[in-house]
Each structure stands twice: as C-alpha cells, then as structure tokens.
C-alpha cells in the first residue's frame, strides 16, 4: 500500500482518523479541553501525555506571535526514526522547515486539530512520509501557545503498511 500524496487538513470529524494512536491522542486533547475552546498549554506536560504515545509526540511552543516555533520536546521514537534529535531547536532549523512552519501556522490560525502528511525523503531513511496530528493548546490570553504533535512514519509496502487512511 502506498502512502497518500501530501495533504494538510483540519480535523473536524475525528472518526476519520484511523489508527489507535491518533484516536488516543485526540481523546487526550478533548479531555484536556473540556468545555473550553482550546485546552490550556499546561495540560501537555510530558508526564501528562499517555505513556504509550509519548515517544511518538513532539511539543512546540509558538513564539513571537506565530513567527517562530520552538521544539521543546521530540519523542524518542521520532528521534530514532529520523536519526537526530531536534529538541530545543527552532522549527526553521529543520531540514523540511517550510512544510513544518506552514503546517504550524495553519494549526495556529485555524485553532483546530490539523492532520498532515508530508514527505520525509529529506531525512534519507527508508520511510517515505510522516503523518501527524497537530493539536493546539492555549496560553492565558487564549492564543495558541503550544502545539502537541503525534507522528507516525509511513514505510514502503515492502517494509510495513501505512497506519492511516487519508482524511
């Protein structure tokens, strides 16, 4: 099974997300949100994220309006898959910075969960695409101040099937 072409969409119907990890992280976001428009940024402390998902997560802070994104944490399985750790780096330091920053800006602007599939050929490994669910969290002023991302990598059909169907 080949992975779908690049896409970035806001998630309005979480039932379209396939894969238990995506469902669990979305449920974590909803529970953190409660009856608020967005959950508070303090709700995404690493110890609060469901342990089975933490290795596939990254946490970014939104800095200087939405002009810069600081990677506060990159999960161990993401680091292992990529071969390098971007914890404490800036979003624009990433090899695929333009795509990542565009997705982050979309998440900040929409204030909604964002599902994306982007190429990971830049990483030079056998996987072809990453699939992520970006979840916005608000600061005290209710602006998006953090983004929690859950990431899965899509491999060629010979290695392992893709975990999701496109939304």
Question: Could you give a short account of the major beta sheet?
Answer: 7 strands, antiparallel
Query: Using only CA atoms, what is the Rg?
Result: 15 Å
Task: Indicate the low-confidence ranges by residue numbers.
Answer: 1-5, 157-167
**Number of DSSP-assigned strands:** 7
At CATH level 3, the topology is: Beta-Lactamase
Number of domains: 1
Shape: globular
What's the architecture, going by CATH? 2-Layer Sandwich
CATH superfamily: PAS domain
Give the rounded overall mean pLDDT.
80
Neighbour order of strands in the largest sheet:
1-5-6-7-2-3-4
- CATH level-1 class: Alpha Beta
Number of helices: 4
Order of helices and strands: EHHEEHEHEEE
Alpha carbon gap, first and last residue: 16 Å
Strand content: 25-35%
Helix content: 10-25%
Structural class, please?
Answer: alpha+beta
Overall description:
- The chain has a single domain, classed as PAS domain (Beta-Lactamase), CATH 3.30.450.20.
- It is α+β, with helices and mostly antiparallel strands.
- It is built from 4 helices and 7 strands.
Question: Brief description of this entry?
Answer:
With 167 residues, this protein is α+β, with helices and mostly antiparallel strands.
Topology record:
Blueprint lengths: L6 E4 L9 H14 L17 H4 L2 E7 L4 E7 L1 H7 L6 E2 L6 H14 L3 E6 L9 E10 L5 E11 L13
Throw out a few tags for this protein:
Beta-Lactamase; disordered C terminus; globular; 167 residues; disordered N terminus
């Amino acid at each position: 099974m080949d992975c779908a072409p690049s896409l970035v969409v806001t998630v309005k119907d979480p039932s379209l997300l396939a894969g238990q990890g995506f469902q669990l992280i979305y449920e974590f976001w909803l529970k953190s949100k409660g009856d608020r428009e967005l959950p508070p940024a303090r709700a995404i402390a690493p110890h609060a994220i469901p342990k089975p998902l933490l290795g596939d997560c990254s946490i970014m802070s939104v800095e200087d309006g939405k002009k810069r994104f600081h990677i506060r944490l990159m999960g161990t399985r993401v680091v292992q898959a990529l071969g390098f750790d971007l914890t404490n780096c800036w979003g624009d330091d990433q090899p695929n910075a333009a795509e990542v920053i565009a997705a982050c800006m979309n998440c900040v602007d929409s204030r909604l969960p964002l599902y994306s599939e982007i190429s990971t050929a830049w990483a030079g490994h056998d996987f072809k695409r990453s699939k992520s669910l970006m979840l916005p969290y608000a600061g005290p002023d209710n602006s998006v101040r953090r983004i929690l991302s859950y990431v899965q990598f899509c491999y060629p059909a010979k290695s392992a099937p893709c975990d999701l169907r496109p939304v």
